[in-house]
Structure formats: structure tokens, C-alpha cells
Amino acid sequence: MKTSALALVAALGLVATPAFAQTTAPQATVSAPMTAAPVPQVNIVPPASGHCGLFETCANTKIGLGKGDFLIRLSALGVLPQDTSSRVKVIGGRVKATNQVAPEFTFEYFFTDHISLDLIAASTRHELAAEDTALGKVDLGSTWVLPPTLTLAWHFRPHKRFNPYAGVGLTLAFFHNISPAGGAVQKLDLRTTVGPAANVGFDYQLVGNWFFNFDAKQMWLSVPAFINERGGAAGPYIHARDSLNPTTVAAGIEYRF
Asked: Fewer CB atoms inside 10 Å of the end CB: C or N, the chain?
């Protein structure tokens, strides 16, 4: 009986041994240092120095106006003839011209911080009439006038945002595209005239190189006029002289180069 039991145990052992042989061996764990992936190099380009937008005030923007500055200005111009005195022969009375509004261009250069020279260019159309004459009110016609004015100005606050000025100059008035009224007025002739001028105004820096300008001028112009032909049959020959003396008022935007 004991021999049989031992034989049975031995048989069981032989059977169990293959089962242990099929057990998976434990995996060996190896600790290895991790190598970091290379970081790509990024080249950072700094912004261009000295760049300033057209409508920006930057660190390198000059404040106010001064020596060497050149400006171009576009303004709305009002021309107000004063007609302070007139002489109209034959029929008497006085000459009157209508007010007008037009665009105006101005070119200005600063010779020093305080002194600038500017030239205005504009052309306006005016209706002319002789009033309080022996014939009542007589329409004379219309004319365009081109009065380039050269002004030398003194600026009181150079290199400041607000810079008032005053100046004196000369106006040369050309009359063109003259149209007689017809009827008793078959011909109208207005002669080129030159006279003194004075102005006051101010510049104000808005942003960057942009400025706002206000300007008022007084011009003294005595204009000779001739109506009809001497000895003509269409109407009386009349010689008139009008102290046109226009006041101009302008407001606009200018840019410094």
C-alpha cells in the first residue's frame, strides 16, 4: 500500500513538472536615460527701427514747424470783395462784386524757425454789377480772377503744436474768362492789378506730419474796368475803377515733407 502511494506521488510530480516549465519567465526591466528631442532654433527679427506710419506720431516725429520744413496745403477758401470805393463815369454809381468759395492750394517753405514764405493759388468766379447808377442797377457781367499771393510770415512758436503767425506780401490779380452781360454792356475789360497784402493765422499739428491751418488775408486791389468800345454804337463807353480790396478766409489740411 505504501509502495502504491509513493508511486502515485511520483506520477503526480512527473505530471506537475511540465506545468511549471510552461510558466512565463519574468521580463527583465532595464532603466535607460531618456534623451530629450532637439528644440528647433527660431530666429526673432526685431521690427525695423525708425518706421512710422503716415497717420502716426512716433518717437522720431518732429513736433511743430521749423527751419527746412516744406508744406503743401489744401484749403476751402472764401473770397469776400469789400468794394470799399468805386468811380463810375457817365452813369455814376458804384461797382459791386459777389462773394465766392473755391479750393485753394498753398506751398510754404521755412527759411528759419520763425520765417516762412508761402504762395497761394486759387481762382474764383464773380458776378459784377453797377449799383445806384442813373440807369439803376446795371449788370456788367462775370469774370474769373486768379490772384497769386506771395507772403512772408513770422511764426511766433516754432517747434510747438500750436504756432500762430502774421505776415505781409504782394498780390497780383489776373482776370480771365470775362463775360459781358449783353444788352447795353457788349464788352467788359478788367486790367491786371497788383497790390499789397497782409495775413494772420495759425498752424496746429494734428498727428504725424499733418497740420490744420487757418488763414485770413486782406488784399488791397484797385481794379480799372472798361465797358464797351470808345465811340461804339452798342452802348456808352464807361471807365470805372473799383477798390475791390477782397478779404479771404481759408481753413484746410497741410502735410509737411
From this structure: N
